[in-house]
Design a protein that fits this description.
256 residues; 7-stranded mixed beta sheet; 18% strand; Spore Coat Polysaccharide Biosynthesis Protein SpsA, Chain A; alpha/beta
Amino acid sequence: MNKKDILIIVATHKKYWMPADDMYVPIHVGKEGKSDLGYIGDNTGDNISKKNANYCELTGLYWAWKNLDADYLGLAHYRRHFTDASMKGSKQERVLTKAKLKKLLTKADVILPNPRNYYIETNYSQYVHAHHAEDLDCTRQIIKEKYPKYLKAYDASMKKTTGHRFNMFIMKKDKFDAYCEWLFDILFELENRLDISDYNQNDARVFGFVSERLLDVWIDTNKIKYINQPYIFMEKQNWITKGMNFIKRKLFKEKK
């Protein structure tokens, strides 16, 4: 693919509405061994497509890192996009355009989704109530050994109640490359150390979940200037169900 100014992959595992703007590149994540959707597969070129069950959209991120060339690179999801809050109309019409994004990029090299706030939970406790404490504890040990200058930011982030999620971001190429090199080095080491043989199907997506907690660590340590941008869910969110699931996870984990 010839070099472009901006490319944002849209990670998907099924056919779905895709933005018409040419900066968006639909990527079939976990494509290895699956039926063709008509999108570029993350099993082409240098790839980790076979790891998708454990790495989620990160197999698409890895593919973009190794196979795309653009001044700016980013990741969005088929059901979750950056949006232009000033735009009116349908959800599709409010998805961030290249023209709007270019204006944002004159102010900062990095665009992140508005942070999530857990209010009564820290980033650490929220993760532990939903998954396994070993995931984050082992990650901390790896950072301590391999990237000690990031440890202070990691510990601080774990104590906060807010954080950027979804592995969504848009970055200038040099920062994108630096982040991916750091991130995947940690995750591949975590994969080597962590025994997930008894994890259920959801918890087995561990490396995708952990990576969501690492973005702010990298951003804060390197003092990266960024802009928070609203995002939009393309489908309805059942907040009652999500809330009940959160309560059940919290109670179950605490009793356990």
